[in-house]
Each structure stands twice: as structure tokens, then as C-alpha cells.
Amino acid sequence: MSTDHNPTGPTTADLLGNAERYAASFSPVPGGAKVAVVACMDNRLDVTRLLGLENGDAYVIRNAGGILTDDVRRSLAIAQNALGVQEIVLIHHTDCGMSGLADQPFADSLTQATGLRPTWRPGGFTSAEQDLREMLAGLAADPHVPGGASARGFVYDVADGSLTEVERG
Length: 169
Known about the structure:
- By secondary structure, this protein is α/β, with parallel strands linked by helices.
- Helices cover 33% and strands 16% of the residues.
- It has helices at residues 12-24, 47-51, 70-81, 103-114, 128-140; strands at 35-40, 59-63, 87-93, 152-156, 163-166.
């Protein structure tokens, strides 16, 4: 990690310098993690520090909102059926940019700006807890993700760092 903190965030050059320093002391990590974590990509949610993970401890899949897109489901099916993953953890968070995002108006604005309609659904939601319940139900019904029935969902609080489990609906 760079010793000089850039208040606006690192540049690509900073990241490449960090990668060179990392490679200089690199040692391979064995595969075979037993847990997959699906979380929002928000930079306030540091999944590895929050869960105390070391490199290789879990498969971490992130996207805007931590939602179950087709590609996330695909990754979970591969993780469970080909890589030996046994447990799935879903993490949403408070103050998420996807909370309150209305899919149709957002897609309309992108269409207006570009002339092309997105082929994907933005995935906005009104409640992190309710969205997690719906995702847990969807995973439980997915025949390609056998661990979906025992997946657990949590909401991370960006204000105090706490993690609260969301019970299945």
C-alpha cells in the first residue's frame, strides 16, 4: 500500500506501484475456500477487515447493491458445484446508493443520455432488509446453488461498523 495518502484516492499509477511492491513479497495462496460472500461494492464496506478474512479465506463477489444478478448466481453455482463452497453470506449496508433507486427512471435516463436501453436491470430497492429477504428466498429456490437454502444475510451499518443478521421472511 502506498505510504502517501491521496485525499481524492489513488491513481492507476499508484495502484501499479502497489502491485509491484506486492509481487516482490508474493507467496501463493491455496484455493478451496468454503465460504462465498456477496456484498455491495461501496468503498465504505471493507469486507475483508469486517469479517477478519485473510487472502484465500473466501470467494468475495461484489457489485452495486450486492444484488443477485445472473452473473452472481452463475459465480455462486460454480463456487458451490466446482470449487467446494459450502456457505453463502450476503451483505447489504445502510445508506446504500441503490436504496431508493428506481429501476425504470434510471434506465430511462441512461437511454436518453446514450440512445441505447441497458440490457440489465439496475437493481434498486427500497429496503436493504427486505431486499435481503427476497434474495435469500431466491437462493433457497435456486436448484443450481445447493447452499442457497442455508445462506445468511446481514446489513452492515456504515455509521458504526456493526453487522446485523436479517432473518428470513
